[in-house]
Design a protein that fits this description.
Shape: globular
Number of strands: 11
Helix content: 40-55%
Strand content: 15-25%
Structural class: alpha+beta
Oligomer: single chain
CATH architecture of the largest domain: 2-Layer Sandwich
Bound molecules: adenosine-5'-diphosphate, magnesium ion
Number of helices: 8
Low-confidence stretches: none
CATH topology of the largest domain: Phosphorylase Kinase, domain 1
CATH class of the largest domain: Alpha Beta
Number of domains: 2
Largest sheet: 5 strands, antiparallel
């Protein structure tokens, strides 16, 4: 290897560092200041890359901070509203749980066992699942970009205010809404080839009186042996929620049959 090339590479790297730091110091100081307290250097670098690539124009506040991730509100250079989900890279407790949902997925054959790699794969899995949802026409956030532990998707809501969760607001027509959720579940299974696996009133938003299905990182391909039990659990959660809303829910077995195989109208 030539010395000159070495030198070029090093100066390139320094130049990039300089640009990132400049970006950090000037334009987005405020935006990064808060992030710095929670996220490590690699995550911040990932964010810099997204700014540079023109995926994000402005990063705003936290929409929600959970145990595994934080969701930020951001704006695309073209004005589109974005949700930026950033997974913590030090959530060691959930590492085993994540592996249980990654193992056996043909999309992710070789995963390094350190926490950071597992979280990156987890994020990539959510992105890939959102792509499957998009292709199938499932009503879900649209994937825009992912890098490392950062996922950029369309924002569900208006002016930085996320649409309410089904947990937080009762739909105007609960029974009709139940039907729409079941339709999404069927679409998810039959067209996207996915079992959600964590479907509940916490992972459905009510947007324009329609259900938006999100949080699909744990969702598994229907070809996976775990998929049928996941869909059973999802049906149980959904029926529970709608019974609480006064809806006469359908028999879980019948629903499973319909979601995973049926083609006739349920109603
Ligand atoms: N695309 C989005 N648009 C608007 N808000 C979102 C979006 N994705 C997530 N959120 C908000 O962030 C919260 C957490 O997101 P979620 O994907 O469920 O992460 P967690 O793994 O923490 O449950 C949601 O309850 C919702 O309020
Ligand atoms: Mg969630």
């Amino acid at each position: 290897m030539s010395r000159e090339r070495d030198y070029d590479e090093i100066s390139d790297r320094l130049k990039r560092r300089y640009e990132e730091d400049a970006l950090f110091k000037d334009k987005n100081k405020e935006e990064f200041r808060v992030m710095e307290e929670v996220f490590d250097r690699l995550t911040l670098q990932g964010m810099y890359k997204l700014f540079k690539k023109g995926v994000i124009d402005r990063l705003h506040g936290v929409v929600k901070a959970g145990k595994e991730a934080r969701v930020y509100y951001a704006v695309h250079p073209d004005g589109r509203e974005l949700a930026v989900k950033i997974y913590y890279t030090h959530t060691a407790e959930f590492r085993k749980g994540m592996m249980d949902y990654i193992r056996g997925d043909p999309r992710f054959k070789r995963v390094r066992k350190n926490t950071r790699s597992i979280v990156y794969t987890w994020n990539q899995k959510e992105f890939s699942n959102l792509q499957l949802c998009e292709k199938a026409g499932v009503n879900s956030p649209r994937p825009i970009e992912f890098i490392r532990n950062i996922l950029v998707m369309t924002f569900i809501g208006e002016d930085g205010v996320p649409a309410p969760l089904l947990r937080e607001i009762a739909p105007e027509d609960p029974s009709g809404f139940y039907g729409l959720v079941l339709d999404e579940m069927q679409l998810l299974w039959q067209k996207a080839g996915l079992a959600h696996g964590d479907l509940s009133e916490y992972n459905i938003m009510v947007h324009e009186e329609k259900p938006v299905i999100f949080d699909v990182s744990q969702s598994m391909l229907t070809i996976h042996p775990m998929a049928p039990s996941l869909v059973e659990r999802d049906i149980g959660n959904i029926n529970y929620t709608f019974r609480r809303l006064g809806v006469e829910t359908r028999d879980p077995e019948e629903l499973k049959e319909w979601i995973t195989g049926g083609t006739e109208d349920l109603y």
